[in-house]
Amino acid sequence: MSDTQLTVTLSGGDVDDARAVVRALEGAFGAPEQSPSDTDATVRVATFSGEGHEEEATAADAGPLSAPVSVTVQGTPDAVRRASDTLTRAFTARDEGTVSGDQEQERQLLLEP
Question: Is 90 strand, coil or helix?
Answer without folding.
Answer: helix
